[in-house]
Amino acid sequence: xxxLPEVExxxxxxxxxxxxxxxxxxxxxxxxxxxxxxxxxxxxxxVVHSVARRxxxxxxxxxxxxxxxxxxxxxxxxxAPSLPERGVHDHFELSxxxxxxxxxxxxxxxxxxxxxxxxxxxxxxxxxGLGVEPLELGFDPLAFHRALRLRRAPIKQVxxxxxxxxxxxxxxxxxALFMAGIHPALRADKLSKPRAQRLHAAIVSVLQRxxxxxxxxxxxFSSAEGQSGYFQLDAMVYxxxxxxxxxxxxxxxSIRQGQRSTFFCRSCQKK
DNA sequence: AGATGTCCCTGGAAGC
DNA sequence: TGCTTCCAGGGACATC
Length: 271
Known about the structure:
Blueprint: H1 4-18, E1 23-28, E2 48-54, E3 57-62, E4 66-70, E5 76-80, E6 90-96, E7 99-104, E8 111-115, H2 121-127, H3 141-148, H4 155-161, H5 170-180, H6 193-212, H7 214-223, H8 230-233, E9 253-257, E10 260-264
Antiparallel strand pairs: 1-6, 2-3, 3-4, 4-8, 5-7, 6-7, 9-10
The structure holds a DNA duplex.
């Protein structure tokens, strides 16, 4: 599934090549998560200025307006001078003077939304509530601790909510909590400052490592749809229920938190 | 306001 | 073998 590192690798894979391109046509397949929000033909003639990222959203900046692209859980983007005939799961296509940008998304959890600007209500609704970027300087250990102290929900669910820090998905949340030795059901406001700092470091570490492996992930992902990603190959706890903890040998447990699976080691991770 | 539950969608796996 | 059910995932939204 496309996580923050894959979204970033995707961005880098075509940002430079599409910059400066003039849009020739835009066409949609089956409905995605949200409507585009404008008449597709009205974008013809506009120029792609740059491609940025915020959380798991790609921001395709045009000379006027911006396209917000989210890959959902099964989405992938291709950009090439020309592409093979469209398949049944290709639901968005942008033809430009420099190539074709295509979204392939079987489960259609993804989205492409047009907003006149980032200040527009549509963009603010999607991006306004996002927390800090975990791999940028704004992600500060002490500020992280202060933010956690205001939350009574289980730490795993607070991480997943994405309003304190973005990019910690279901897999990374379990892995980072294992790395920090913290039980996923612990109330966020019960983390001591040192433990919050450990968790902060674990999040940065786990995401940086994923970014470093992102290129191979992307290749795997596009060629092997639905295959377990690179991360599971050496996950410490995610997806390993019943298997032995790589650190202490205790059987890994699985619980449900907010309709999501959480994996942890009851011996290594304490409340 | 924060917390919680629901829903969107498809394909693959598991159960009958 | 063929059916049904469950599950995965991010995140907006409604409700309390």
